[in-house]
Amino acid sequence: MFWKKKRLEETDKKNKPQTIMDLFQHLKENPDFAHFQHQGDHFSCWISFFKTLVDVDYVHRDVFPCIYDEKIHSMKDIQEQLPIETIIRTKDLSMIQSKLLEGYIIIQKNEADTDCLIIPSIKIEGRQIEKSEVETSILGPKETFVESLDTNINLVRKRIPIPQLKVEELRVGKISRTRVSIVYIDGIANVENVNTVKQRISDLEVANLIDATVLALNISDNDNSIFPQFIDTERPDRVSGAVYEGKIAVLVDGSPNALVMPSTIVEFFVAFDDYFLVWHIASLYRLLRLFAVALSAFASPVYIALLTYHYQLIPKDLLGTLISSRSSVPLDPVMEVIVLEIMIELLREAGARLPTKVGQTIGIVGGIVIGTASVQAGLTSNFLLILVAMSALAAFITPNYRMATSIRFIRFPFIISAQMLGMLGIAFCFIFFVCHLLRLTSLGRPYIEPIYPLRVNDLKDSFIRLPYNFQNTRPMVLRPGDVSRMNATRTHKKKGKHKADIDE
Amino acid sequence: MKLKTLVILLLLALLSSCMPTNIIDDILMVEAEGFDYIGHNQILGTATMPNYVQSGNPGGQGGGLPSTASMMRYVSGITYDGKSLVDKFQPEGQRPLKIGKVRVMLFDKKLAKHGMRDQIDFRNRDPDTPRDLTIAIVEGSTNKLLTAQDYQTQIPISRYVQDMIQQNNEQNYPTSNLSQFIYSYYGNYMDPFMPLIKKIGNHLEMTGIAIFKKDKYVMKVPNKDTFIFKMLFEKFNQGVYDFEFAPKKHIAIRNVHTTINYKVKDGNSSAPDIYAYVKINGQVRQAYVGSISKSRAYRVEKPLEKQMEQKASKLVRTFQKKGTDPLRLGDTVRSFTYNFDGKSWPERYQNAHFHCQVTVNISQTGISQ
Amino acid sequence: MKPGQISETQQLGPMSGFIIPHTMQISIGILSFQQLLSKDSGQDAWLACLIGGLFSLAIMWMILRLLKNEQKFGRADFFSIHQRLFGKWLGGLLNFFVTAHVVLFGVVFLRSYIEILQVWIFPQLSVFTFTILFCLIIWYIVLGGIRIVGGICMLSFIYMIPLYMSTVFAVPEAYFSNLLPMFEHSPASILISAFHTTHIYLGFELMLYFYPFIKRPQLAKKWCYFGILTSMYIYIILMLMATVFFSRGEMRLTIWPTVTFWKSVSFPLLEHVDMVIIIYYMWALLPSVSMSAWVASRFVKHTFPVIKQKYALVGVLLIFVIISVLIKNGEQVKIANDLYGNIGFFIVYAYVPFLLFYQWLMKKVRGKAA
Hints:
By secondary structure, chain A is an alpha+beta fold. In chain A, about 45% of the residues lie in helices and about 10% in strands. In chain A, the strands form 3 sheets. In chain A, strands 1-2-4-5-3 form a 5-stranded antiparallel sheet, with helices on one face. In chain A, helix 6 (about 150-155) crosses helix 9 (about 235-245), helix 10 packs antiparallel against helix 14 and helix 15 runs antiparallel to helix 16 (about 425-440). The radius of gyration of chain A is 30 Å and the shape is globular. Chain B has 2 domains: about 25-60 and about 65-225, no CATH class; about 235-370, Nutrient germinant receptor protein C, domain 3 (GMP Synthetase, Chain A, domain 3), CATH 3.30.300. Chain B has 11 helices and 14 strands. In chain B, the strands form 3 sheets. In chain B, strands 4-3-2-6-7-8-9-10 form an 8-stranded mixed sheet. A 4-stranded mixed sheet of chain B has the order 11-12-13-14, sandwiched between helices. The longest helix of chain B is centred in the last third of the chain and has 26 residues, at about 295-320. Chain B is globular and about 85 Å long. Chain C is mostly helical. The two termini of chain C are about 30 Å apart. Chain C is built from 16 helices and no strands. Chain C has a single domain, classed as Up-down Bundle (Amino acid/polyamine transporter I). Chains in contact: A-B, A-C, B-C. The interface of A and B includes residues 326, 328, 375, 382 and 422 of A. Chain B: It is a lipid-anchor. Chain B: Keywords: Germination, Lipoprotein, Membrane, Palmitate, Signal.
C-alpha cells in the first residue's frame, strides 16, 4: 500500500515537464497537435492546440481572424479584442497543460515564453439527448443524461431555475483529472451531508474515473456490501426531484449516470413513474415490487427446503403434482435448482452482451430450450421451471439495475443455506441479511431508514405513496435545512369547499 | 479481515453436518393407517401410500425413470397395540416411510371396544401427526377397507375416506377430527366420539357416530339420529332432517341455521337441571304431496318441534344410562357452577334432568306451492 | 462532553423504551407459559397474567426512579449504582451476580429454543452447530453497537405482530365456556400462578443496563410503561386463547400450547404451520440473546476497562456456546428455566425495591454527613 503510493508520486515527478519547451516537445509526437508561429505584420505569436479537441470551425471563423487583425499589436490586445468572455492569462505550467488537453488554445509571444493566453474553444462531441433506455417510463419526461457534464448540468438546471442551486466542481483522478460536479440546493440540503460528499470525493485516490458508478463504488460507506448505497439514475427528472427533496446529486464528466445520495433501501424500489400515477395505484405498484423481491429471493430456496426437508408443509393437493413432475428427475432438488438458475443466468448475461438482433434470437432459443427441452430431458421439473422463471422475472421488476443484480445474487446464499439446514437455514440467511442492512449506512445515514429508526413521518413515501397533500415535509432522514416543502395549512385547504351533491 | 471471513465460511461449511433429508420423491408418504384388533394386545396394522408416479410425467417421454415406475401401495402386518406403524413397516418399505402427511386413521370396532388408550397417547405425543387428521371407526375390517381394489373411484383410498368424512362433517355429522377427539378424551366430564364408516359393495358409507366412554366404544348413534346429535352438540347450518309426520309421510327440512344454548340450574345438587334451547331456521326441501304450502308451513312446525324434543331427550337418556357424555353436558354444568363438585359428577350425571326446547321456524317452502 | 456521557449518534430514540423492554419480555416463554399457569388457577390464569403485569409495572416505576436518582452521580446504570453504593469490590461482586443472571437469561432462551427445534423439526440438530451459527449472528449484531441491537428489537416487534394477530384463528374452534365460571379460584392459588409469570415478565429489568443509551429519558418513561402493558396484553390474549382452545386435561399434557395450537391450524396452501412458526420464532429469540450478550460484554468492559468490548463479546459468546452444550436434555433445560425464573424473581421483585430503599437511605445518611 505504502510503497505503491510512493511509486505513483515518483512517476508523476518524472513525467512532469519542467519547462514549456519540454511540454511542446512531448506533445509534438502527437500528429493531431498543432503548434505553429503566426507571423503577421504587426504582431507575431505562437499558437498551439489539439486539432481533435478544439472546435476547428470556431477557431477558423472567430479566433484566427481576430488575432490576425491589424488592430492587434500585443497579447493584451488579444485579450481585449477577442469576443470571448473568459480569456485566462497565466504562467502556471500545469494549468497550461491541462487546459491544452481539454481543448483550449494557447497563445504565446515567444515559443519559450511561459506567459500564455488560454482561449476556450472546446469541441463538444457526443450523443444527442435521447430517450431513456435503462430506466424507461411510459409517462413523464423521456430525456436522459448524456456523456457530457455540461449538458447534464444544463438538464438539471433548467428544472431547478433558482439561484440557490449550487454546482460545485471537483477534479478526481490522479491522471485523468475528471470533472465531478456536486449539485444541491443551498439551504435545503443538509450541510453535513454536503461536506461529507465533498470530503469523500476529494479524498479519493484513483488514477482515473470512467463512470459515475465507479465513483459510487469508491465512496460508498461499506465497500463489501452487495447492496448499492447510492442511487444511480439516468433520468434528469429523478435527479432534480431528489435535489428538491434535499439530496445531493453527483455528476461525473463522461458518464450518463448521476448519483443521488444519501439514499435508503426503499428508494431503490421506487420508479419515478410512481409520482405520475394516482396514489392508490402507485402504492399498489410499490407493494407489488416489494412482493416481487421477496418472491425472487425466496422462491427457489423455499422449494429446496420444502422438497428436501419439510415435506410436511407441502399442501396435500400439490403433493401429487410435485411428486409426479419430479419423478423422472434424477437430480436432488438443490442440484435441479442450481442447474436451472445457472441456465437462466447464462441466458440473461448472453442477452445483455449480444447485439440486439442476435440477443432476441438467443432469448427465443433459450426460452424454448429451457422451457420444454430441459423438462423433457428430465433435467428439471415443470414446477421448478415456473418458479425459477417467475423469480427471474420478479428480480428485474426492481427499477434500479444495480439493485436488480443484487437481488438476483441474493438467492444463491439462500439456496446454499436452504440445502444445509432447510427452513432454518433460510431463516439464518434472512437474519444475516437483515442485520447487514441494519448495519449499513448511506453517507452516514441509516440505510433502512423509515423502518429503523422508525420514522412514521417518512413512511408516507416509502412502501406506499400517500397523496401529495400529505407530502408537505421533506424526508427526515436527510435532516434537510428546510423541513417543510410547502405550507401545510394551505395544502390541506381544498380548492373551494366542495359541496356534496345530495345537498344540491 | 479476509482471513476472518474465510474462517467463518469454512466453519459454516463444516458445521452444517449433513442433516438427514426427506426428499419428497425419495420417501413413501403414508396417507392412511388402519388398525384391526386381533386379540391378546395384538393388532393388524395397514398403511397405504398413494402412488403418485403412476400417471408419469406428462411432458417426460424422454429420459429419467420410465413413466410407469410404480411404488408400493400398501403394507400390512401384525404388531402390538400402540406401536408406530411406520417404524414397524420400515423393514418392508421400498423407501423411507414417513408419517408427516397422514390424512386418515381408521380403527376397527373391536379395537375401539378393547380401548384406544395407547393409540391416542401416541398420536398426541407425535409432533409429526397433523392435528386435523381424520379419524373414524370402521364396521368390518380396516385392512379390507384400505386394501380393496374394487372401488368405483380411482383416487387413493385415503383421500376418498377423508373427503367423505369431511364433507359429511359439514352436514349432518358433528365435526370430528383428531383435535376434537383429543379435546374430549383428555378433557374432564366429557367423552369423545368418532364417525362410523363401512364398506358396502363398491363404495363407502357413513353409518353413524361411535360414542366412547373415555377410550372404549360403548354405543352407536345411528345415521338417522345424527342430526339430533349435532343439533345438541354445536351450531351448524347445512344439515337435512327427515320428518315423518305420519306413517310413510315425510317432509325433509333443510337446515339453514341452528343455534344451541345451554342453561344449568343447581349444578351441585344431586340432580342438576340442564336446559337446552335449540333454534332451527329451516327450508322445506321435499314434502309429501299436498302436506305443506307457504301458508300452512307453521302447522308443521309444532309437531316437528315436539318430535325433535322427544328424540333429543331420548338420546340424552341413553347416554346417561351408558354413563357416557359425548355432548359435553358435564363440562357445561361445570361452567355454570362455582366450585363444581367433580368427584360425584359421574353418579349425578345419571340423575340429571335434561330439558330440551326446540323452536323451529320454516322460512321457505320451495319454488312451487 | 462530560466523561461518561454517550455521544448522540450511539444513542437510541425514546421509542426504544417501549420496544426494548417489550421484546425482551417476549421470548421463548410465550410458547409454553400457559401450561404452568393453568396448573394452579385453571380458567382464571389470565388474572394471574394481569397481576404479574401490574407488579412488573410497579417494578418498572421503581427502576426508572432508581435510575433517575442516579443520574446526578454520573452514568445511570446498574453497574455504576452498585459500585457507588457498595464500593468497588462488593459492587463488583454484585455486578458479577446480576450479569450472571443476564447471561442465564440469554442461554436459557437459546437452549430452550434448541430443545423445541429438536422436538418439533430436526431431532438430529446438533446443539453445538446451532449455537455456533446463532452466536455468529449475535456477534455480527452486537458488534454494530446498541443501535443495531435496538434495531433488531424493533424488527422483532414488527415481525411478531402477525403472530399475535393469528390468535384469531382460535376463535372458530374456541369453547368460550371454558372460561366460566370466572373468578372461581382462591386468591392464593392465583397469586401462586402470578409468581409463575415472573418467567415471562422478566427481561424488562434490562432497562437498568441500557438506560444511559436512551436519548431524552424523561420522554421514554411513558413508553416504558406502555411496553409492559403491551406484553401484558399479549400474554393475556395468549392465555385466553389456550384456555378456550384446549380442554383442561389436554392443557395439563401439552408442553407447548402455543405451538400445538398452531399445529391445529392449516391454510389451503400451507400445512403444518407449527414448523414455520417455530422457525419464525427465532425473531423473538434474537433480541433477548443479543441484548444479553451486549450486557455481559459491557460488564467485562466496565469491570476491566483494559479489555475492549469487542474482545469481551467473543468470550461471552463462547460461554453461551459452552453452557448450551453442557445442558444435555429437556429435564436440564427445565431446571435451568426454573433457576432463571427464581433468581430473576429475587433480583427483580425483591432486590430492586431494596436497592431503591438503600439508595434513599444513603442519600439521607450522606446528605447529613455533608
